[in-house]
Amino acid sequence: MSWLRASTLRLRLELIARTIMERRCDRCTRSFKPIRSLLVNTSKRPQGNVGRARLGISLQFLTNGLVLASLLPRLPELKERFGLSDAEYGLAVVSFPAGAILAAALAGVLVRRLGRLPILIGGTALLAAALFLAGVAPHPLIFVAAYAVAGATDAVVDVAQNLQGLRVQAVRGTTIINSLHALWSAGAVTGGALAALAAGLGVPLSVQLGVTGVLVVLVAWIGGVWAVRGVEVEVDPTPTEPAPGGNHAPSSTDPTAAKGPPRAVRPSWRTWLLLGALVVIGSMGSASEDVVNNWSTLIGVGVAGLGAAAGVVYVVGFGAQFVGRLLGDPLSDRFGRLNVAMVGAALVAIGAAVALVVGGGVGVLLGFALMGYGSATLVPAALAAANEVPGLKPGTGLSLVSWLMRLGFLVTSPLLGAVAQGEGLRNALWVPVIGGMVALAAVTALRVRDGVRVG
């Protein structure tokens, strides 16, 4: 029996030793847990593939610019088909921004209710279909209606794309909004070049728009899925409204902490002034783009005398804008959004003046290159700053500025058409000259208000 007692005692000693070791290991684990949290970020992180989300939203911006540009260089064909004067043409193409303004007011609500993925994919498909109908329209009224639907759809897709782009930017922690708009410009250059090439080769507009539309929808579908699902955690790109329970939540021991549900903060008059300045900047940037969109080919024919090669003016304008937006992110990080936008507004006015005064092929191409480069950062800067305005719901500032800045599109073409009808197409270039000066004045007057980083 002695061997049995010895065996029992040995088992008890082993059990005690094992218990002691487990407790020591548990204390050791708890002791090193704070150190581990310093070495490895165990806080809530976005799940999924941020790199894929970056690629996906890039494809979305690229395809949006491409599908819009697939029709623009061939608008003079429609002007000739319908027998429109300059003034009538200006009123016809204004249907696009008119539709955009009507729809953009509800863009933020639609994005929140329907979700970004359905809008990114379905909106692109509807946009391609509307542009196709506008291109094959047998009557100017059908063109106006289809072009208005295209503008309305683009306005909603534009808000969804910018919100998703700012979300990916917030996750990455580095500025990407200008480079995203650079890809939009790259798409516009590509689409414009393909449209000009198709026109030169005699490819029917219906064939060109049909093939382009199908390819764009397929790529946009892939990009939309990657952009949304690559960032699964909701990240509010507005830093002024921390999520409930986050690091900025008031401490329960703070005597100044608000008790009960937080009250809605009404925007101050400074907030509205800031939004107004951003609307002016965005509107003038939109107006500069509208000159390149709808009038570059006509100016290439009537002012530069380029004939069938007039589409190159469009390509040069948006090619320069692509370069400006590609450089916009590092320049904005280095010198500030405000300073970069000031230089851009000045270049818009100077470029339009060069095209006006010098004229000819060299003057028009150089002038439109300066206009494109100068306008590159105006719209992205206005949208990014609008999304940071405090006292507003997430996405409200961006949606509001995106809506109102389309007034630049709404006014520019009819004004250019009226001036061209009365004073000649060359003198119509005074419109972007004045627009650039107005944008420069707005950017100069803009200051950092309510903690919003503008410059």
From TrEMBL:
Chief location: membrane
MF terms in GO: transmembrane transporter activity
PROSITE patterns: MFS (PS50850)
Region ranges (Disordered): 237-263
Membrane topology: Multi-pass membrane protein
Sequence intervals crossing the membrane: 53-72, 92-110, 117-135, 141-160, 181-203, 209-228, 299-323, 335-358, 364-386, 398-417, 429-448
Keywords from the UniProt entry: Membrane, Transmembrane, Transmembrane helix
Pfam families, A to Z: MFS_1
Every Major facilitator superfamily (MFS) profile domain range: 53-453
UniProt-listed PANTHER family: BYPASS OF STOP CODON PROTEIN 6 (PTHR23514), INNER MEMBRANE PROTEIN YBJJ (PTHR23514:SF13)
Record's protein name: MFS transporter
Organism per entry: Galactobacter caseinivorans
Record lineage: Bacteria, Bacillati, Actinomycetota, Actinomycetes, Micrococcales
